[in-house]
């Protein structure tokens, strides 16, 4: 099995998730290649101890990402740093000749994303993908397959949502994801937007125009020193797009909520059509629901327990359950499979074009929500 040597820039929440997924690569069966983490970088030097403790393969630790990029032993980079840094660091990773799995949103705003897209265009020899793991749940894959097989017929509505609730607590301390200058003006849309756009974009459901309901409730937060500081990012966004033309037109609803009472990382996808409907939610991670309909026939939803039926085969028995860390590993399997020349079993990670299209939607939604009007989406050429 081929080894692909990775460097990680950003050893926080998501950097550790990749390290864990790579460390249990034996979980996957028949992979053409495996990732080996050989270098890690974070400006907070303390965070790298965890990596060196658990991963004997790490040969380089550095607080300067340029040192990591100068390391010839690094073939590919996973970059998981605050949004404001994407626009500067991603192009440098590519200029150094490293393949890249970059965290969403692939630039803090559209201008940063344009710079990243220009750097990608200059290096067609490199594989670049954007992180988005939730569609790798088996139930989500079932909904995708259902739609791709044409079972939906004329579409009535598509909804994809990503719901969090911890921000309902006004005493939750502020972090960079609530700061406009680090997270970006998109607020919750920049944080969660790629997750809800990934499948609709993959299935070709690009909204022509959007409206957006933006909600701001918690306006200050404790900063950890006893003081309260402004919290200016949008808490919730409900984007309603119009997809298709004329009689085939349908609404696409995209919800990115940081204050959805009671919800903890709930990602859901629902497709409603005249011939068939299907839905999946991470609340019921082993199930999906679907219905097929013939004119005059019965309207009966069916619920199927899927168990563990991942895109990339794994050692876990089919009766067991699939979870978040499995979705992360399946996303990594898709990236590594492509690096090894495969087709990611027909479902590659989110592409740079999809990331750019999601920026087009979010840019229009931000204007639509703040100006209270319908805005045309200007997609990249
Ligand atoms: N795919 C997902 O489900 C998911 C979930 C959470 C976050 N994310 C994304 O991951 C990225 C990071 O988010 P996180 O939650 O891991 O944040 P985090 O704050 O936990 O980690 C970011 C790390 O980057 C480090 N860092 C900052 N500047 C740096 C620099 N110049 N060089 C090297 N390291 C630097 C910080 O010290 C920190 O440890 C963001 O793009 C975010 O949107 C994705």
Tell me what you see in this structure.
- The structure is a single chain.
- Helix 1 packs across helix 9.
- The chain has 10 helices and 17 strands.
- It is 29% helix and 25% strand.
- By secondary structure, the chain is of the alpha/beta class.
- The strands form 3 sheets. Strands 16-15-14-13-7-12-11-8-17 form a 9-stranded mixed beta sheet. A 6-stranded parallel beta sheet has the order 3-2-1-4-5-6, with helices on both faces. Strands 9-10 form a two-stranded antiparallel ribbon.
- The chain has 2 domains: 129 residues, Rossmann fold (3-Layer(aba) Sandwich), CATH 3.40.50.720; 238 residues, Dihydrodipicolinate Reductase, domain 2 (2-Layer Sandwich), CATH 3.30.360.10.
- Nicotinamide-adenine-dinucleotide binds next to helix 1.
How is the topology of this model organized?
Elements: E1 2-9, H1 13-23, E2 33-41, H2 48-54, E3 60-62, H3 65-69, E4 76-79, H4 86-95, E5 99-102, H5 110-121, E6 128-130, H6 138-148, E7 155-163, H7 180-183, H8 188-202, E8 209-215, E9 220-222, E10 228-230, E11 236-243, E12 250-257, E13 266-273, E14 276-281, E15 287-292, E16 302-305, H9 324-339, H10 352-371, E17 375-376
Parallel strand pairs: 1-2, 1-4, 2-3, 4-5, 5-6, 7-12
Antiparallel strand pairs: 7-13, 8-11, 8-17, 9-10, 11-12, 13-14, 14-15, 15-16
Helix pairs in contact: 1-9, 4-5, 5-10, 8-10
Poorly predicted regions: none
Distance between the termini: 39 Å
Bin the strand percentage: 15-25%
Task: Please trace the helix and strand order, writing H or E for each element.
Answer: EHEHEHEHEHEHEHHEEEEEEEEEHHE
**Structural Rg:** 21 Å
Structural class: alpha/beta
Assign a percent range to the helix content.
25-40%
Shape annotation: globular
Main sheet summary: 9 strands, mixed
* Reported CATH architecture of the largest domain: 2-Layer Sandwich
Total domain modules: 2
According to CATH, the homologous superfamily of the largest domain is Dihydrodipicolinate Reductase, domain 2
Bound molecules: nicotinamide-adenine-dinucleotide
What would CATH call the class of the largest domain?
A: Alpha Beta
Number of strands: 17
Q: Number of helical segments?
A: 10
CATH fold field value of the largest domain:
Dihydrodipicolinate Reductase, domain 2
Quaternary assembly: single chain
């Amino acid at each position: 099995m081929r080894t692909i040597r990775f460097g990680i820039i950003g050893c926080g929440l998501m950097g550790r998730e990749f390290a864990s997924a790579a460390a249990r690569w034996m979980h996957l069966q028949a992979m053409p290649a495996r990732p080996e983490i050989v270098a890690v970088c974070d400006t907070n030097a303390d965070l790298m101890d965890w990596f060196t403790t658990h991963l004997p393969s790490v040969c380089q630790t550095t607080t300067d990402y340029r040192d990591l990029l100068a390391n010839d032993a690094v073939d590919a980079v996973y970059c998981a740093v605050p949004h404001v840094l994407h626009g500067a660091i991603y192009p440098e990773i590519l200029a150094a000749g490293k393949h890249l799995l970059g965290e969403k949103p692939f630039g803090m705003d559209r201008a940063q994303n344009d710079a990243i897209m220009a750097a990608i265009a200059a290096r067609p020899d490199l594989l670049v993908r954007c992180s988005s793991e939730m569609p790798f749940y088996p139930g989500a894959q079932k909904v995708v397959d259902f739609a791709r097989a044409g079972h939906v017929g004329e579409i009535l509505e598509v909804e994809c949502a990503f719901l969090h609730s911890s921000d309902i607590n006004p005493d939750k301390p502020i972090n960079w994801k609530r700061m406009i200058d680090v997270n970006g003006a998109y607020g919750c849309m920049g944080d969660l937007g790629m997750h809800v756009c990934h499948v609709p974009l993959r299935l070709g459901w690009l909204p022509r125009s959007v409206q957006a309901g933006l909600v701001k409730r918690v306006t200050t937060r404790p900063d950890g020193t006893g003081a309260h500081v402004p919290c200016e990012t949008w808490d919730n966004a409900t984007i309603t797009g119009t997809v298709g033309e004329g009689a085939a037109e349908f609404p696409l609803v995209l919800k990115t909520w940081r204050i959805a009472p009671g919800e903890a990382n709930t990602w859901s996808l629902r497709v409603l059509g005249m011939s068939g409907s299907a839905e999946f939610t991470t609340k019921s991670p082993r199930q999906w629901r679907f219905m097929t309909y013939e004119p005059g026939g019965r309207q009966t939803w069916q619920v199927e327990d899927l168990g563990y039926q991942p895109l990339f085969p794994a050692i876990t028995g089919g009766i067991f359950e699939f979870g978040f860390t499995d979705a992360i590993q399946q996303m990594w399997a898709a990236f590594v499979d492509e690096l090894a020349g495969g087709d990611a079993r027909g479902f590659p990670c989110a592409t740079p074009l999809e990331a750019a299209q999601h920026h087009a939607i979010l840019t229009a939604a931000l204007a639509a929500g703040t100006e209270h009007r319908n805005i045309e989406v200007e997609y990249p050429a």
